[in-house]
Amino acid sequence: MKTLKLSSIYSVGLGFLVITLLIGVLSFSYIYLSTEKILTLMNLHLTERTDLTLPYSTELLKSIDEIDAIRTRAYVLFSFASLLSALGAIFIFSIYKKNIMGPLHQISSAMQKMTQGEFEKLKVGGGTEISVLADRFNVMGQTLQDERKELQGAISREQNIVRKLNVLNELNSSLIFKLSVSEVLESIVSFSNPLIKSEIKTIALINRLTRQTTHFTSSLPKDYGDVTLMTNNIIRELFINKWMPIRLNVSSGDKRFAGIIEGVNLKINNFLAVPIMIGEDILGTFILVNKTGADEFTAEDEDTALMVSFHGSAAIEKALLHERTVELAKTDGLTGLNNHRTFHETLEEEIQRARRFDRNLSLLLIDIDYFKKFNDTYGHQEGDSALKELAGILSQSLRSIDSAARYGGEEFTIILPETPLEGALNTAKRINNEVKKHSFDIMGHKAHITVSIGVSTFPDDAMDREGLIKAADDALYMSKRKGRNAIFTFQQYKIESAGAAPQS
pLDDT tens, 169-200? Predict the structure, then answer.
């Protein structure tokens, strides 16, 4: 579009004004000259003619009329010139107001708003220099607005990163002194809440051999039920995916995890799972289900979840190592049962509990018959294998509240809380029968062993730990004395040995 220059408009207006002024000057000059001429003529008439005859008087009157006519024309001409001058002035003022003052006021107001962070697009038409200036101002303002938004976005992203780093720093600080696996997992879930909001947050640690859940914690309310099934399915999917993050939206058509939570009234809409790694080793997975406040998880959410898992992995590894160390300190290295020390600690705790609640407590002391001969025949390696198999039989024969331990060599103990003598005898008989019928694979051959068992009961046989162990040991002695592969109680021992001290 061609630009209309204001200078041209002003030139036209000014020329118009000059013309009107020139007309006015010419009209005044015309009046002045005409009047002077007539007056001169009249003066001549008056001085040269002394006889004022009728014809002359008539001629004089005509001259006067002519003067009035000239004056009238001059006044009209002057009035017309004045009107034109006024119109020219109004024209110039309107142009000045419309094309200069108005747009300048808009530009000034827009600049004021821009300093306050607001951008208002100017609408200045006319195709003048100022409209061109307004267009360039709009371009500049839009550019500044875009840059401002980009800068605000960058600042927001930086603030978000700082916020995440602060949360992760707090997470690291909270994990430094935590040695419990469950506490570590709960802290990770808790600190991740402000970073990624979701309906469910779950951490599952993985058995590296079976790929099944070994430790588990979840933000899922207790009344939702168990989500272990979902966790195991996701672990398998991650394994197939070579431990790469999985991010999906079920509504988009991916139904891999739809309806796999048994007993949980929950619809999966979106889903995010990232592995928890230490180097190349997989520790577990961090799972988030149903993002709140948004339709799906983003790439940024995935990066955040990976950051959380990375910062938590070292603490998880440390807690697992501590747990393993504690387990090794409490268990027998060969059989996996409680060791001698743990047995004494557990027995003392159970006696105190039985005393406090006025309950029974029974103790089984088990010894493998002729085990020295077994070792001499097959070797200590096969003997160790038999001990491990026997430990498995004992574990499978017990309740969840019972506790088995390797007492030493080929001797084992079983603590039976809240169990009177009759119940202890039933357990002893079941163990004796299971061991007797079990075939031990020794050097390609089937072998059998038997056990002797001594039984004692709190508070009937003893009131403290040492006394209860001594009573069970005496009963075991009687079992061996009576031919082995037998079960004796302390009461039976007292009857059999009445009047005589036990032989060593």
Answer: 787 787 788 888 888 888 888 888 888 888 88
Q: 246-252: long-range contacts (C-beta < 8 A, 24 or more apart)?
A: 246/271, 246/272, 246/273, 246/274, 247/271, 247/272, 247/273, 247/297, 247/299, 247/301, 247/302, 249/295, 249/296
Task: Please name which of 314, 315, 295, 292 lies closest in space to residue 195, comparing C-alpha atoms.
Answer: 292
Whether pLDDT at 486 is above 90: yes
Helix (H) or strand (E) holding 117: none
**CA of residue 226 relative to chain centroid, distance:** 23
Q: Strand locations in 210-301, DSSP E?
A: 213-218, 246-249, 270-278, 281-291
The more confident residue out of 257 and 15 is 15
Sole residue written with tokens 């499978």: 396
Count CA atoms closer than 13 A to 163's CA, side-chain side. 12
For the stretch 489-504, what's the b/e string if a residue is b when 16 or more beta carbons lie within 10 angstroms of its beta carbon? bbbbbeeeeeeeeeee
> Which entry of 410, 418, 466, 496 is annotated as an active-site residue?
410
Contact 66, 12 (CB under 8 A): no
- Residue 474 CA neighbour count, 13 Å, CB half: 23
Q: Is 389 a catalytic residue?
A: no
Q: What is the pTM of this model?
A: 0.53
Q: Is the distance from CB of 275 to CB of 285 less than 8 angstroms?
A: yes
Give me 323's structure tokens.
Answer: 């747990």
> Do 19 and 143 contact (CB within 8 A), yes or no?
no
* 104 bridge partner residues: none
**Binning pLDDT at 50, 70 and 90, where does residue 2 land?**
very low
